[in-house]
Amino acid sequence: MYITHLIDKTDKTNNISNKSLWQSGTFISLFDMIEKLEITSLIAAYAIIHHLQNMLSTEKVFKDHEPFIFVRDQLKLARKLLSSYDLGNIDDLFENTYRSIEESSFKPYLGNDNYKEFVLGCVNGIDTVISHELKSQQCYILPRNLIRYSDTESLKFEEFSKISGCLFEMKEAQLCLVFGRDTACVFHCMCALENVWPTIENIVQKHGISWSLGSVAFGKNWGNLLNELDKEIKETKQKHKAKQNKGMLETLSNISAHMRAIKEAWRDDTMHARGPFSQKVAIDVFNTTCIFLNYLASLED
């Protein structure tokens, strides 16, 4: 199980003091929520307030001041637990409750029950604030097999960030994958691969082959581009039979073969809207795209 807290940057309801982990789109584990974000303090305070609510609403009349003392001490404990949170006017609610409890011991002629009802009203107000905060902590539980895809660092996106246009698309593909938008994930991966043609052109020309994309590669038929590239590689092989060119030509052939495999397996279906795609396909496409982009980036060095 993995949990992410999604916060709109304009949302004013999130009041947790440690906000560094609670950024929009940030993935955190349940352990992080407990250990680093002190969410257990909020839950413990809520449990105390809920217990006091039951006590104040079920006991008909307090025969003496002792129950109020117990309520006050429990409220102080709850307030201490909430010390790392900024919960608006909750401090005023606590102070009003303390004041009512103190007054109940000095003005017995008004009846403790009157003060009990007022204290209950204050406790209900505290409960409302805490409940709102708990409900504002929206979590999304990921399937275990998708946990590794929530960690951008382990995916090593930075290795192919130099390929223009790819990083954005792959980050979008990552989010779509972990949130179950499998067809969208495949689409973003194909969009990322549309951006690699200039990089392929640079690699090819760096090795002395005159193949060129022309004015723009976007929108061109992959089959035509690959046929032209394969033709140039074949002609180069015939012209240069020296062993020193063998490794270079194999590399270029591998690039062409990989792009053709992607085209046949997924690209055509994606661009012609022949989905939807399953999670298994999305994972395969995502992994293959990441591997290929990293491979291309390594050839640019």
Question: What would you say about this model in short?
Answer:
This protein folds into two domains: 1-142; 148-300. Helix content is 63%, strand content 4%.
Descriptive notes:
The chain is mostly helical and 301 residues long. The protein contains twelve helices and three strands. The chain has helices spanning 30-35, 39-58, 66-81, 90-106, 112-136, 152-155, 166-178, 182-194, 197-206, 222-239, 246-271, 279-300; strands spanning 2-5, 26-28, 139-142. The longest helix has 26 residues, at 246-271. The chain is rod-shaped, with a radius of gyration of 31 Å. The chain starts with a strand and ends with a helix.
What's the helix and strand layout?
Layout (H helix, E strand, L loop, with lengths): L1 E4 L20 E3 L1 H6 L3 H20 L7 H16 L8 H17 L5 H25 L2 E4 L9 H4 L10 H13 L3 H13 L2 H10 L15 H18 L6 H26 L7 H22 L1
Antiparallel strand pairs: 1-2, 1-3
